[in-house]
Design a protein that fits this description.
By secondary structure, this protein is an alpha+beta fold. The protein is built from nine helices and five strands, in the order αβαααββαααβαβα. It is globular, with a radius of gyration of 18 Å.
């Protein structure tokens, strides 16, 4: 059994989440929102069976904060504002704003995860929830032998990095979707390239961007 926490750093998310987060803090700090987990595929086993493990991972997630080194990295991005970095310095995910439970009735067998509350506190759950469910699912599905899965993932990341290296490139780092492999998340392979943010969707339409 693998008891290693799925999420070990709050940087294990998509870079665009930080640009969106900063926009919400500055322009829409009073927004409330509700986000619901939806699995669009047919799983090999009922996802409700992961509920206990998901709740343990959410408990752990809510203990994490940003380290000084992580804040220095974020603060070094040219589009991050000092007040947002100060906000992140004291930020913790609040467990009371998210619940995970087995589905009932028409949702039987499904995994119901709902994050509801101030949007500056619940928007960030999205990528972490997807990563947690994905990792727990494949830990169970693949069992102890994950060698082939990791090799395939690392090969794909290596090909993408090699394509970026020949010339300076603007890129938006999608850390969370690089997988849970630490080698895939390591940004040092992209040194010499310029990171760029993506447009924050809540800025364009804050009332519609409700986590659906």
């Amino acid at each position: 059994m693998n008891d290693t926490p799925v999420i070990r750093s709050l940087l294990e998310t998509d870079l665009y989440k930080f640009t969106m987060w900063q926009t919400l803090l500055h322009a829409f700090p009073a927004n409330d929102a509700e986000y619901r987990f939806v699995c669009r595929n047919t799983p090999a086993f009922p996802l409700s069976e992961l509920c206990e493990a998901v709740n343990r991972e959410l408990d752990h997630l809510c203990t994490l904060g940003f380290s000084d080194a992580e804040l220095a990295y974020l603060g070094g991005l040219r589009f991050m504002k000092p007040d947002f970095i100060d906000f992140l310095r004291i930020f913790r995910f609040q467990r009371r704003f998210i619940e995970a439970r087995p589905g009932e009735g028409a949702e039987a067998g499904q995994l119901v995860i709902v994050a509801k509350g101030p949007q500056v506190h619940v928007m960030g759950f999205e990528i972490f929830v997807l990563a947690i469910v994905n990792e727990l699912y494949f830990r169970r599905l693949c069992g102890a032998d994950r060698t082939a899965v990791l090799a395939e993932g690392r090969a794909g990341v290596s090909v993408r990095v090699l394509r970026l290296r020949p010339a300076p490139t603007l890129f938006g780092r999608l850390a969370g979707r690089g997988g849970r492999d630490p080698q895939a998340r390591d940004p040092r392979g992209l040194q010499g390239h310029v990171e760029c943010g993506t447009r924050a969707a809540p800025w364009a339409d804050p009332d519609r961007h409700d986590g659906a």
